[in-house]
Amino acid sequence: MSYQVLARKWRPRNFASLVGQEHVVRALRHALEQNRLHHAYLFTGTRGVGKTTLARILAKCLNCETGITAEPCGKCSACLEIDGGRFVDLLEVDAATNTRVDEMRQLLDTAQYAPTRGRFKVYVIDEVHMLSNSAFNAMLKTLEEPPEHLKFVLATTDPQRIPVTVLSRCLQFNLKQMPPAAVAEHLARLLGAEDIEFEPQGLQLIGRAAAGSMRDALSLLDQAIAHGAGRIATEDVRDMLGAVDQTYLLRLLEAVAQGDGAGLMAIAGEMQERSLSFDAALQDLAGLLLKLAVQHAVPDALESDLPERERILALAGRLDAESVQLCYQIAVQGREDLALAPDEHAGFLMTLLRMLAFRPESGAGQPVTADSGAAASSPQRAERASARPAQGFDGDWPALVRRLPVTGAAKELARNSALVRRTEGGIELVVPKSMAHLAERSYVDKLKAALELHFGRPLALKATAGDAPGATPAAIEAGEREARRVDAVRTVQADPFVQNLVDIFDAKVVGSTIKPGAVKD
């Protein structure tokens, strides 16, 4: 008998075996038990969370020979045929390959006919957002007033692309991504039934790598079983995924706490030799820093069964809360900048060196520990809490903007804003009302991170739309460009050769076409 992949073999066949979508199951159960059946359902969510599976279970609930029920028997011919994908009254359509209006009309032409075998005809349209506008328009009337024997189940990963006229005719259920812990727990039950030996930590790695998709988790599990020759070992899974051992990350942060640059470089070299993903390393490093921040804020919040719990607790005692926050921002920003680095190893190493270079209060290259923070005097604590801008900032905002390593919309926010005031808590900016969109929270947060990296300490940043009290860096740059252009025009017009050409050919100099960069002495 041919091997059946785990994702198909263990596909849920009833509501009880579906994992992680209790809020949807509860609503569908109540509707079926009270016979309050809608004619159109819309299931939304990312890949592999159970949209098509739910549609098939609902089809069984509607057509089970025992009657409309939330607990289909799974043994009657209707249930067995639906499970086998051969039930004549269940039509599954892939909208990604049937996008045109003619194909939709052909489908709807059959809607008027009564079911052949079941109680209801069930039309399951997967990736429904791929239909053309004409196809959506063709189905509207049938979707609004379908025959009594017809039920629509629509599934999509992108509900934003579905017309409102269609959304308003459906009951919409949003399926959640699977938490890694729930995925690992489900995989453990499955492996127990399959009688396959496994290590729990290996399943946790698969749960995280699946990124919320149970189907992806089952596919990875199949791969892990093959990779481990019939068993799931943590080291085998880590090698298969290219995952970063938490030991590396803990060692990195311990080196940061000690101000050990040589140690950081050595650990990064080891990771390069093993061909580990530095993007994944920065992602996991940010996750580890989050655990440290949680430990500082809520000391009892760390899971008691966390394998690295003791080392995390020790590390939380050596790095103070401000250092953890700053390192987190550096790790997140470093991951964004990784594609711009000469290579991934260089970008990763530069991110680590930034963690050494930028430290609250203690100065570059000096470790900041929780103990040293506790030993600081009250005035020092007050100064640290106030987040006062660095003394080197003299209020020249345009000059500061030119030095900031910031790109994209955050750079435009910096260039098109003017300094309102420097307060004890940080910096306040104003942008023109015509560019109020630049004051959005996400752009402000990115600019705030760049400023904190520059000053080496936490900083409060506020940006509002209004009348600027002075010229913005962008306005100053535009003025400088115009001054250079005017100067270039004068230089060209004063050139004897140009004057001769003007006289001979009765020509004139078009100043708007002159670029300052083209003028040479």
Task: Please characterize this protein's 3D structure.
With 521 residues, this protein is an alpha/beta fold. Helix content is 52%, strand content 8%. The chain is built from 24 helices and 8 strands. A 5-stranded parallel beta sheet has the order 2-3-4-1-5, with helices on one face. A 3-stranded mixed beta sheet has the order 6-7-8, with helices on one face. A hairpin with a 3-residue loop joins β6 (418-422) and β7.
Task: Kindly list the characteristics that best describe this protein.
alpha/beta; 3-stranded mixed sheet; 5-stranded parallel sheet; 52% helix; 521 residues
Residue share in β-strands: 5-15%
Whole-Å distance between the termini? 84 Å
Return the average pLDDT rounded to an integer: 83
Largest sheet: 5 strands, parallel
Total number of strands? 8
Tell me roughly what share of residues is in helical segments.
Answer: 40-55%
Class per helix and strand makeup? alpha/beta
Overall shape: it is: globular
Alpha carbon gyration radius:
31 Å
Summed up, the helix count is 24
Strand order of the largest sheet: 2-3-4-1-5
Q: Stretches where pLDDT falls below 50 for ≥5 residues?
A: 361-366, 371-386
